[in-house]
What we know:
Protein name: 1,2-phenylacetyl-CoA epoxidase subunit A
Number of strands: 2
Bound molecules: acetyl coenzyme *A
Radius of gyration: 21 Å
Oligomer: single chain
Keywords: Oxidoreductase
Enzyme class: oxidoreductase
EC number: 1.14.13.149
Order of helices and strands: HHHHHHHHHHEEHHH
Distance between the termini: 44 Å
GO molecular function, one term: phenylacetyl-CoA 1,2-epoxidase activity
Strand content: under 5%
Amino acid sequence: ADPPADDYFHQVIAADQKIEPRDAMPEAYRRTLVRQIAQHAHSEIIGMQPESNWISRAPSLKRKAILLAKVQDEAGHGLYLYAAAETLGVSREELVDKLLTGRQKYSSIFNYPTLTWADVGAIGWLVDGAAIVNQVPLCRCSYGPYARAMIRICKEESFHQRQGFEILYTLARGTAAQRELAQDAIDRWWYPSLAMFGPPDSDSTHSEQSMAWKIKRFSNDELRQRFVDMCVGQAEVLGLALPDPQLRWNPDRGGYDFTQPDFDELFQVISGDGPCNRQRLAHRRAAHDEGEWVRRAAAAYAAKSAERRAA
Length: 311
Ligand code: ACO
């Protein structure tokens, strides 16, 4: 049964402190966290694909080394997050199985293709930039293991965002063709990045409850606005345009007016029908099958080591 409204759980939430794995918690709170953390972990792992597409074709050895390190960081983020989810009494096998069978989601953004090298820059600047805006408040999430995982993830995401910005900055100051590549990448990634923040507040099923539980600290629309406000100045430094003719400062609101992303497209992508959904999941399933022997070998090694220790 769920704890009563004046119990330890609610006192901790009201006092802005952390719930830890052994604390009693409402079943719906636990389920919401498993859903969100698993979806977040899956996003990190699936998110390795669009960028790894360019590792073998990075324009220099240095760029290749940086991109390799970045994609490896994403795998690490997935691991911290699966570990955080496991503290809620689910196993990693179970979560991976739900991803591979389409019963759990991952972020819409990773269902778009990376057509040119400039896309690696746009992903770093816009996608990782959006991720930071969304994730910095999660460092204050009421669930301890998730909040702590987010601290390190956010530090690494800041580095990712800067490397993307620097790629675009370099292209924007290169030849006319390089500048065009950079602009084209921003034109294609801008609206999908805005859609990452989720449906508008009026259509967000979980926001109200998640904010009451202090899992989410800001609504989807609040964070989307913050992201737009942050990008405008950075685009000026890049000398590149954001593809929105409606973008203008609104002194009454103290923020930029902007065109919303196409939310029908977001729902279509979330439901499995985006440009690369099938390719992403097929690739993930193949990697999982091919990695079977590694998992078995690691489990056998762990069992043997345990036996040796016991002897
Ligand atoms: N992609 C895929 N699904 C989405 C997206 C998106 N961009 N936005 C919302 N959804 C889904 C929600 O998961 C929910 O579906 P469900 O009930 O089947 O789980 C539904 O759309 C309705 O949305 P909300 O009620 O607004 O959902 P929620 O309160 O969970 O907010 C949000 C969505 C903001 C993405 C939240 O889950 C969150 O902050 N997650 C952690 C961050 C994260 O996952 N980032 C991944 C991308 S960043 C990166 O990895 C680099």
